[in-house]
Amino acid sequence: MNDNSFHTFERSGMSSTKGACDSPILLIPYMWIGDFVRCHSVVKLLRARWPHRPVDFLTTTLCKPLLDYMPGVRQGIEWNLPRRSLPFGQYHGLANRLRQENYGTALVMLRTWKSALAPFLAGIPERTGFIGEARILLINDLRFGERTLPRMVDRCGALALPKAAPLPREWPLPEIAVPDAEVSAWRARRGLDGDRRSIVALAPGAVGPGKKWPTENYAELAKALVGDGASVWILGGPLEKELAMQIVSYAGPGVHDLTGNDLRDAIVALKAADLAVSNDSGLMHIAAAIGTPTIGIFGPTDPRLWGPLNPLAAVVEPQRNGPCPVCSRDQCENVHHRSTSEIPAQRVIGVTRGLLQSTGSRR
C-alpha cells in the first residue's frame, strides 16, 4: 500500500470530508488490545490520505500505553465507559471533552449505537461507521456491507477509505515502535540488564473458551527452555498472575514473572525478547507489530481471519487424527470445535527450539 492508492481515490471524487482540511480525526476502536493494534493500519491509511490532519484515539486506561508507540498518533482521549450500561452523564462529559478538540471526522469502528452517541453529542461534522444498530441519526456517513467482510482489519480499514472504494490487496502493517533506550532503562529497573541469555516471552492468557493453551503445557515449555539455557519471561495482566506463579513454581529459576497492571511493561518486554510464544491474544498482536518473532497458538479461531496482520514466525493449530470431540465427525471443519488443549506441549517445544536455533539472540 502506498500513497498513490489514496491519490487515485481523491482524484476519482469518491469521497470528501465535511470537516476542514486540517481538522483532527478521531478513531473510536474496539477496546480489545488486538483490535486496538489492528487500528494502526487505519492510522497509516488516514495519514496517507490527509498528511496534515492529526489522528487521535478514544482509549481506555488499559490500552492507552499502546498509543505512545504508534507512529502517527497525536494523542489518546482516555475515557473508561462501562460495557453494559448507558450512564448519560458520562457520555455528555465525553462529548464535552471531544468538543474541545474540534474534530472534523470521527470513525466509529464499533457497531453499537451508544458508541456513536458521544461523537453525535459533540457535534463532530462527519461521523463515519457501518449502519450497525440502526444508527441512522447518529452516523451521517453510513457504510453498508460490514458482514461481508470476514476480517476485522477489512471492516476497520474500509471506514478509512472513500465510500464504495475497493479494498486494497494489502493493508499497511501495524507498527509498534519501542525505543532501544527505553528497553535498556526498563531492564535496568527490573534487574534484568545483566542477563545475556536468549529471552523467550510467554503470554499464557487469553479471553474466550478453548483459546488458552493449558497452563501445564506452558510450564513444560518453560522448563524445557530453561534447561536449554534460555531466560523465560511470563507476561500478562493481573488475571495471569496465578498462571505465572504456577509456571514459575514448576519450571524453577530462570523463569521471571513479569505480569502486572501496566501494559507498558509487556510492550517493552516483548521488544526486548528474542522470541514470543502466545495464545490468540492482544499480546500476540503487539509482539508481531513490534517485529519480535512470534509463535501463535490457535484453537477455536482461524489465524487467517483473526491472526495479526503482521507475519507470525509460526502458527500452531490442532492436528486431529480422530473424530471431533464436539460433533464426533471424522472430517470436522468447524474451527469453533477446536481447542488449544489438543496441542501437545512437545509440539510447541519443538517449534520453539527450532526458531531459537534459526534466529538466535537479537543482542
Question: What would you say about this model in short?
Answer:
The protein has helices at 3-11, 33-38, 40-49, 64-67, 88-99, 117-121, 152-158, 180-190, 215-227, 241-251, 263-272, 282-290, 303-306, 345-359, and strands spanning 25-28, 55-59, 75-78, 105-108, 126-130, 141-143, 199-203, 231-234, 255-257, 275-279, 294-297, 314-316.
Layout: helices, strands, pairs:
Layout: H1 3-11, E1 25-28, H2 33-38, H3 40-49, E2 55-59, H4 64-67, E3 75-78, H5 88-99, E4 105-108, H6 117-121, E5 126-130, E6 141-143, H7 152-158, H8 180-190, E7 199-203, H9 215-227, E8 231-234, H10 241-251, E9 255-257, H11 263-272, E10 275-279, H12 282-290, E11 294-297, H13 303-306, E12 314-316, H14 345-359
Parallel strand pairs: 1-2, 1-4, 2-3, 4-5, 5-6, 7-8, 7-10, 8-9, 10-11, 11-12
Helix pairs in contact: 8-11, 9-10, 9-14, 11-12
In words, what does this structure look like?
- Helix content is 35%, strand content 13%.
- It is α/β, with parallel strands linked by helices.
- The protein has two domains: 3-158, Glycogen Phosphorylase B (Rossmann fold, 3-Layer(aba) Sandwich), CATH 3.40.50.2000; 180-359, Glycogen Phosphorylase B (Rossmann fold).
- The strands form two sheets. A six-stranded parallel β-sheet has the order 3-2-1-4-5-6. It has a six-stranded parallel β-sheet with strand order 9-8-7-10-11-12, with helices on both faces.
- Helix 4 links the parallel strand 2 and strand 3.
- Helix 8 (180-190) crosses helix 11 (263-272), helix 9 (215-227) packs parallel to helix 14 and helix 11 packs across helix 12.
- The two termini are 32 Å apart.
